[in-house]
Design brief:
It is a single chain. By secondary structure, the protein is mainly alpha-helical. It has a single domain (6-138), classed as Herpes Virus-1, CATH 3.30.40. The protein has seven helices and four strands, in the order ααββββααααα. A two-stranded antiparallel ribbon has the order 1-4. A two-stranded antiparallel ribbon has the order 2-3. A hairpin with a 2-residue loop joins strand 2 and strand 3. Helix 1 (12-24) crosses helix 6 (110-136). It starts with 11 loop residues before the first helix and ends with a helix.
């Protein structure tokens, strides 16, 4: 079975996970302190086979495929570093495509990264739930205020 279909089609819950990950951006850029960066969905492997759609985290083109060296970070982080007199040879961490061992030594195991992604998604979900609840909550006047006006 080809790698890109080794896990079958994602369920609706897994598709919602993918959307949430893409809305949150690259987990690894966030860990590096570089803020939001559009991302791919990285499926973790076990023995060269995808573990499933649940075992995923967000990774930008640089962190996932080793492409582009994350241009936003290179342009802005290097300029800011130069102005501060800091020598930055690699403002972003290593790419998974350029070496799994170095990548995992720097960021942690796949399971640790999945746990960090899950935590970010949980916080994002709670924040969105709070916003929806607060926005849709009808304004209720106190019974004492109503009684005073009549």
């Amino acid at each position: 079975m080809p790698l890109n279909t080794s896990t079958g089609a994602p369920t609706k819950e897994e598709q919602r996970r993918f959307v949430a990950i893409k809305e949150d951006g690259c987990l690894l850029c966030r860990i590096d302190g570089n803020g939001f960066m559009p991302c791919d969905i990285h499926h973790t492997l076990s023995g060269g086979i995808r573990r499933g759609h649940r075992y995923t985290f967000g990774a930008c083109l640089w962190h996932h495929r080793g492409e582009g060296k994350n241009l936003w970070v290179v342009i802005f982080a290097n300029d800011a570093a130069k102005k501060l007199g800091i020598n930055v040879s690699n403002p972003v961490g290593p790419s998974l495509a350029k070496g799994s061992k170095l990548f995992h030594d720097y960021y942690g195991s796949d399971d640790e990264l999945i746990a960090k992604q899950d935590e970010r998604l949980k916080v994002a979900k709670l924040t969105e739930k709070f916003r929806r609840t607060k926005r849709n909550r009808p304004y209720k006047r106190s019974a004492k205020i109503v009684a005073r006006r009549t």
